[in-house]
Every structure is written in C-alpha cells, then in structure tokens.
UniProtKB/TrEMBL annotation:
Stretches the record annotates as Disordered: 1-28
Protein name from the UniProt record: Fe2OG dioxygenase domain-containing protein
Family listed: Belongs to the iron/ascorbate-dependent oxidoreductase family.
Fe2OG dioxygenase domain segment(s): 201-303
Compositionally biased spans, kind Pro residues: 8-23
InterPro entries listed in its UniProt record: DIOX_N, IPNS-like_FE2OG_OXY, IPNS-like_sf, Oxoglu/Fe-dep_dioxygenase_dom, Plant_2OG-oxidoreductases
PANTHER family linked to this entry: OXOGLUTARATE/IRON-DEPENDENT DIOXYGENASE (PTHR47991)
GO molecular function, one term: metal ion binding
Organism, as annotated: Gossypium darwinii
Keywords, sorted A to Z: Iron, Metal-binding, Oxidoreductase
PROSITE patterns: FE2OG_OXY
Pfam families associated with the record: 2OG-FeII_Oxy, DIOX_N
Superkingdom of origin organism: Eukaryota
C-alpha cells in the first residue's frame, strides 16, 4: 500500500493540501486512469475517524441460506429455512443466498454490461451516470449509476445489449427477492404474504444500482462508499469477486467475501420499521484497493411509492405483551 508523499511535495505537507482534480476529469475512473497518479486529490480524502476503525478478525461466518429449500416438498425443510432467515436477520441483517435459480450467465452478463457502460466515453454517460457522490464535501472513490427497473423499466441505450440483459436480470432477481421477503414475513410470525401485500410489492420499487470502484493509489485515505444502511425492504447484491464490502457486526467491521454465484442479501430500513425494530437495517460500507477494479451491482427492492410503512400491529402487540 503506497504511503509516500508525492514526488516534489515538501516532507511536512499533509496530504489534505493536494490540489483539486483537474476540471476535465469527471469520473473517478478517468481520474484513476490518469497517468502517474500517485496521490489522491484532497477532496477524496476522508477524515481518519470513523472510517478507519479496525476490522474484525471474526471467524464467525456470515449466514448462508439455501434458497431452493423454500420450495422443498418437505415442510420441515421450509420451516427450518424460515428459522434461518429469522436468525440471520436478527444476528447480522445480512446473509448469503445460494441455489437461487438465477443463471450464472445472467449474473456475469449484467456485470459485463455495467462494466461496458462505465467504459463508455464520458460524453455518452453524462446525464445518466452519477460520477461522484459527496459526503460533507468529500467525494467517494466510486462512479455509480442508478436505474429504475420497476414499476417502470428504464435503461440506458448504450451499450446496446444493456436493455435486454437488465430487463431479464431484474425480472429474475425480483422473483427471488419476493420469495425471500415471504420467508422474512413468516420468520417474523406474520402471514407469508403480509409484507408483499401491505407494501404492495406488485407495484414495488426496484432499481439497479451499479458501482464501479477504480484502483486507488491511496486506498487508506479514500472511501468507496461510506457507512450507510439501505432504504427499502431487501437488497440483493453481486460483485466481480473483488473484495471491498464491509458489514458492521457486533460493533466491528467485517470483511465480506461472497460465495461465487450467490447473492448477498441485506434487509433495509423499511423492514426495521415494519418489524418494529426486531430486525435492524445494518450499516455497511465499501473500501477500495490499489490493484483491481471492483464492480458491485446492488438491486434494492422497496415498497410501492404510495405504500405507507408502519410497524406490523401484531409485532406491536407482541411487545405490549412482554
Ligand atoms: O459496493 C458494495 O459492495 C456496496 C454497495 C452498497 O452498499 C449500495 O449500493 O448500497
Ligand atoms: Fe448499501
């Protein structure tokens, strides 16, 4: 990891005094690819706290749930899977989902389509891609794009294959998400379709949120995506097998290395509300590295725009009976 000051800087000069990025560099990708970059502009330098806290060395693995067991003809297998959802949501707020039925080729295709999108000339992405996100005037080391998939489907026109791949991918992922949400509903002791119906998931919101984290010459100073919880009900995330996601667990950051071809699922703020706080929407963040381009594709699922989210009355009564 490079920690030396850039050539020509006086030894006492703190990295915060580096000049701002040249105006014509508008994406982090372009900045990262600009030749001889050995420092990062001060606008990308995050304050040391709280973003550089130690990472947990926990050997406790993030829960993994076999999605196919939800459809098992053995009632015991389904109910055991529901119990696992409950435990994963209570203990972590995050879990891995295997055997979900979305073909590997589709997962690869959407990652490649997003990679191609981010590789388009700057002019072609302008107006679609959001290049830099600012947190208190500090920019994240990330380019990203958010595209509505449901209830209205949108797609950039380039690359040409994007529309078809996104449409197919988001439909398949939505089916998986709704089934997991049914499992979560049951795990809370609610009717299987309680969340689906109450939050009108037939008209629910679904986005593709694609993130590109280019290599960063000073990864210890930058942040790909600062700590946040997700809005909505459930996010299903895939990535190009380059690590970077960290999840807050028992007060520490835990590195997450997803199983290939699995989804990383996390519950969002609306489940925290609906569950009356039984399940928490957990903080997570993305750190960057100095070697590899990382791509992650999050597909958040939320209530219909006109749905009203409130604690399920059964769960309020449960608390009242304690
Ligand atoms: O890049 C990642 O792994 C995290 C992405 C994320 O948390 C988000 O898009 O909300
Ligand atoms: Fe997130």
């Amino acid at each position: 990891m490079a920690t030396t000051a850039p050539t020509g800087s006086p030894p006492s000069q703190p990295s915060l005094t580096h000049p701002p990025p040249p105006r014509k560099l508008t994406t982090v990708k372009a900045l990262s690819e600009s030749s001889g970059l050995s420092f990062i502009p001060s606008i990308y330098t995050f304050p040391k706290q709280p973003y550089h806290e130690p990472v947990s060395d926990t050997k406790e693995p993030i829960p993994t749930i076999d999605f196919s067991l939800l459809a098992s003809s053995h009632p015991d297998e389904r109910s055991e899977t529901i119990r696992e959802f409950g435990k994963a949501c209570r203990d972590w707020g995050f879990f891995m989902v295997t055997n979900h039925g979305v073909p590997e080729r589709m997962m690869k295709a959407i990652i490649e389509a997003c990679r191609e999108f981010f590789g388009l000339p700057e002019e072609e992405k302008r107006g679609i891609s959001i290049f830099n996100e600012s947190v208190d005037e500090i920019l994240c080391w990330r380019d990203y794009v958010k595209i509505f998939q449901h209830p209205e489907f949108h797609s950039p026109n380039k690359p040409p294959s994007f529309r078809e791949i996104a449409l197919e991918y988001s439909k398949r992922v939505r089916l998986v998400a709704r089934e997991i949400i049914r499992g979560i509903s049951e795990s809370l002791g609610l009717e299987k379709d309680y969340i689906d119906e109450t939050l009108n998931l037939e008209n629910g919101l679904q986005l593709i949120a694609a993130n590109l984290y280019p290599p960063c010459p000073r990864p210890e100073l930058a942040m790909g995506l600062p700590p946040h919880s997700d809005h909505g009900i459930l996010t299903l995330l895939i990535q190009n097998q380059i690590g970077g996601l960290q999840v807050q667990h028992k007060g520490k950051w835990v590195n997450i290395d997803p199983i290939p071809n699995s989804f990383l699922a996390n519950i969002g703020d609306h489940i925290e509300i609906l569950s009356n706080g039984k399940y928490k929407s957990v903080l997570h963040r993305a750190v960057v590295n100095n070697r590899d381009v990382r791509i992650s594709i999050a597909v958040p699922h939320g209530p219909a725009l006109d749905a009203i989210v409130s604690p399920a009355s059964k769960l309020v009564e449960d608390v009242g009976n304690l």
